[in-house]
Amino acid sequence: MKFKIGVFAAILMAPNAFAQDSAMFRKISDEVMMHGTCYNNLRVLCKNVGHRLAGSKAAEKAVVWGEKAMKETGCDKVWLQPVNVPYWKRGKEQLSLTTSGGKTIKLNALSLGNSEGTGGKPMSAKVLMVSGFEELASLPDEQIKGKIVYFNYRFRQDFVFTFQGYGDAVKYRWASPSVAAKRGAKGVIIRSMSTGEDDFPHTGSMHYNDSFAKIPEMAIGNYSADSLEKWCKKGTVTATMQSECHLYEDLRPSYNVIGEIKGSQYPDRIITVGGHLDSWDVGEGAHDDGAGCVQSIEVLRTMKALGIRPKYTIRAVLFMNEENGLKGGSAYADSAKSKNEHHVLAIETDAGGFAPRGIGFEMGEYQVEKIKAYRKLFLDYGVYDFEKDEGGADISPLHKNLNVPAAGLLPESQRYFDYHHTNADVFENVNHRELKLGAVALAQLIYLVSEHELF
Q1: Could you say which of 151, 280, 301, 407 is the most buried, measured as most Cβ atoms within 10 Å of its Cβ?
Q2: Which residue range forms the structural domain that includes residue 12?
């Protein structure tokens, strides 16, 4: 415990520092809440660009938007970092069911990202409902071969922190097609990764094991999933899947968008804050992750507006291709390595534009304790949870490959998986005060780390 005593002793020796930091925290909050542009930036991104899958024309338009928004902060430098990204196209799709009584029902379904469709032709088979991988493994091959397997695995509602529920359920989205194809299945239907009491289907990335057939995978919302469960229990159900979706082999050129304020004392020490510019091809990508992009831009704008001259260089990065490839995060880390840059901290905001409740960390315990020594300063802004392990996908290459300490903003999580990867992820479902408070917490954290040279 000696290291903890050392950290707190250093703070207690300078009581005036807390008063000064508290005053700066208030200035940051007032600036963002009274004059912040992040909410209007999100409006423009969502309504003028819309959803923006990597490799699409909309993603190109989003890069132009991001570069302009960065320049409007007045930061010292803005540039585009080349990234080659995959391109997956959804095309037309539909899913229908025929019950044992002869009733035909069309379901609102979404193909999973990076999946292969049916070549645009209808493909029909009987439905085999299982509760999960263990039940499927217990069945003989003859019961599975030629079927469309329905993985009726529910997003667990008993987890208060909903990202735990997502982590528990997401394996069915990611791996189900190859698990089922290994046993001879023709297709897969999954219950969406959703907390919602609604019927919105959720898309998201999946992965094929190249050793097995690349069979189609579709997700359905919770109400449709409940109905399919009832029909399967009553008798035989036949599903007809039809989809044009396809992942193209060639990569397409795109960009990360980067803005920077040069450090006044240690310009070679870099703090990165970012979100991902791409989204899935449904909704408007408002919470995932337009919110994180505009919050990161707001950090730069706020520092310039308040005349803060950070000791460290501060970068805001709009990463491209987080959703179905992570090419932007990898390109940024590769560039940092090739240039021998010294990144002291990387922060990601990719958990929605809801009110901030905490900051998670992936770093050494001593580094975490340095930040936690200032936790009292955050309490007036609703930020209290500093106990979770959290970084972010886009900054994971920096953390894993270059050992850069990582952190992630933790907003209130209860509503996120109602909207995540759905047509409901639109601007109207983001609250302006909650969005701005997230930007406040990020700017406050970055100010502390830079001002007190914590890393």
Answers
A1: 407
A2: 2-88+249-451
At residue 276, φ and ψ (nearest 5 deg) are -105, 135
pLDDT band for position 101 (cuts 50, 70, 90): confident
Q: Are residues 145 and 169 in the same domain?
A: yes
Cα(424)–Cα(93) distance, integer angstroms: 19
pLDDT tier at 2, thresholds 50, 70, 90:
very low
Q: In terms of pTM, does the model score above 0.90?
A: yes
Contact 189, 218 (CB under 8 A): yes
Any idea which of 97-106, 113-122, 382-391, 420-429 has the lowest mean pLDDT? 97-106
Where is the domain boundary, 227, 244, 261?
A: 244
Say whether pLDDT at 7 is over 70. no
CA distance 170 to 154: 10
Are the CB atoms for 433 and 33 separated by under 8 Å?
yes
Cα–Cα dist 346/220, whole Å: 36
CATH of the domain at 258: 3.40.630.10
322 close to 368: Cβ distance less than 8 angstroms: no
* Same-domain pairing of 344 and 195: no
Closest CA to 346 of 402, 279, 424, 414: 402
Q: pLDDT category, 15, cuts 50, 70, 90?
A: low
**Residues linked to residue 256 through DSSP beta bridges, in sequence order:** 81
Residues 233 and 95 placed together within one structural domain of the fold: yes
Total domains in the chain come to 2
Residues 326 and 197 in one domain: no
Kindly state whether residues 30 and 166 are assigned to the same domain.
no
